[in-house]
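for the writeup, i need someone to sanity check this before i put it in the appendix. the sequnce is what the collaborator sent (i think, or maybe the updated version? ugh). structure was predicted straight from it, no edits. if anything looks off just tell me and ill rerun, i have time this weekend
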Amino acid sequence: MLVAGGWEDSEKEEVRIIIRTEVEKIEAVNIPCTQLSMAFFDRLYEENIVRDNGHIVKCLDSFCDPFLVSDELRKVLLMEDSEKYEIFSQPDREEFLFCLFKHLCLGGALCQYEDVLDPYLETTKLIYKDLVSVRKNPQTKKIQIISSVFKVTAYDSNGVCYPSTKNHEQTFSYFIVDPMMRHVHVLCHCFGVGEMS
């Protein structure tokens, strides 16, 4: 439940996100969340983006601003003119599972990429399972996702103010709503290097 800029957690303690400006508009885009299996990423093996041993196929370095693209995985994730970009359709790319995977693969400003796919898949799976709630449908007896996922952006008089004033593909804030438990999980990241002393 939204409570004056925050919400209450399961212990009825108020949790707040502090935005130091007057918010004029909040945008919440519904993100599809239907995938129940990591088999969604099997096509990376089938299309030779990843070798059978799990190593990501390398390519000549190029830039897709601001990302260094040095392997076929980043090509598939970033470069629309890549010959294998379309192994994931636009609806596939909008799925929360794909978004998580992409965010992890692209990393932060000081990211050191993995040479094998497994760490990306395992971390994506662990985070996804922690954030998304499922239940067994009483009629069909099949597992279904009950969580709703929203990508949230707040605006003040100058433009975007949350999750950051700087727009970047790796800056995001997802609100994952569990209607049964009445919980909201927030997964938020602001791209860049923080202050270092």
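Helices lie at 43-46, 72-78, 90-94, 96-106, 118-131. DSSP finds five helices and twelve strands in the chain.
thx in advance!!
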